[in-house]
């Protein structure tokens, strides 16, 4: 049986997971699986799953594990994941990590990269983030401004602020991260799968560091 590469990007909201995931996946031909994007896509399509997830997301809470797991496992069963994939925003709880471990068995090389960024920087990044409605490409009003105001550099689509990027919801998301997701660092460190990366540097520098560590699976 082929051993596939499963890259897991951990990090608080605004750490740069989505930004770096897009670059890593393009460089390494991996499928980019963002559970946040999958939920937002369901919301756009007005599916039953999207409707159930909306209340949790708007409140800055996690969507219940059973909803996340079913959606995620359906997604990674698709053909584009056969050569390996990158998980962005999953797992977010210990039960999610245990379910993934059980599903992968011994058939995957798992590398977990954890982005570290101080909270004041996260707040600044998230409250001035603008996301393309059409292609999900991410801009920042100060750090990655669009060439034309309000338009995505990649596809010209409309740039909008995510409904969970208000100061109030971001503060809740950070609290949820500390309580429910940060314990995953210990979970993966115990399995010698974790490498920590300083995410509070220019995008290009962070990318180089992540690329290097994702190849070797080098633990910090
Ligand atoms: P999700 O969409 O996964 O959001 P998140 O984890 O909170 O992460 P973000 O997308 O906010 O940030 P990011 O780290 O990707 O940062 P980005 O690259 O955009 O989840 C949303 C919600 O869905 C959750 O709250 C939950 O309700 C639900 N959900 C999703 N997955 C779930 C799961 N597994 N279980 C349960 N519920 C789940 O960068 C941020 C900004 O900073 C951008 O503007 C960018 O341009 C800028 N930036 C990036 N890098 C740099 C840099 N190096 N220097 C300067 N600026 C930078």
Total DSSP E strands: 8
Rg (CA only): 17 Å
Return the string of H and E elements: EHEHHHEHEHEEEHHEH
CATH class: Alpha Beta
Number of helices, counting only DSSP H or I runs of 4 residues or more: 9
CATH architecture: 3-Layer(aba) Sandwich
What is the overall shape?
A: globular
At the fold tier of CATH, the topology name is Rossmann fold
CATH superfamily: P-loop containing nucleotide triphosphate hydrolases
Question: What hetero molecules are in the model?
Answer: BIS(adenosine)-5'-pentaphosphate
Largest sheet: 5 strands, parallel
Strand order of the largest sheet: 2-3-1-4-8
Find the structural class using helix and strand composition: alpha/beta
**Helical amount:** 40-55%
Domains counted in the coordinates: how many?
1
Distance between the termini: 29 Å
Which range does the strand content fall in? 15-25%
* Uncertain stretches of 5 or more adjacent residues: none
Report what the structure shows:
The chain has 220 residues and is an alpha/beta fold. It has one domain (4-30, 83-213): 3-Layer(aba) Sandwich (Rossmann fold). Helices cover 46% and strands 17% of the residues. The protein is built from nine helices and eight strands. The chain has helices at 17-28, 35-44, 48-58, 65-76, 94-104, 119-127, 167-181, 183-190, 203-216; strands at residues 4-10, 31-34, 85-88, 108-116, 129-132, 138-140, 159-160, 194-198. It has a five-stranded parallel β-sheet with strand order 2-3-1-4-8, sandwiched between helices. Strands 6-5-7 form a three-stranded antiparallel β-sheet. The protein is globular, with a radius of gyration of 17 Å. It starts with a strand and ends with a helix. The relative contact order is 0.19. Bound molecules: BIS(adenosine)-5'-pentaphosphate (AP5). BIS(adenosine)-5'-pentaphosphate is lined by residues 11, 13-19, 34-36, 39, 56-57, 60-63, 68, 89-90, 92, 96, 125-126, 129, 138-140, 143-144, 164, 173, 202-203, 206.
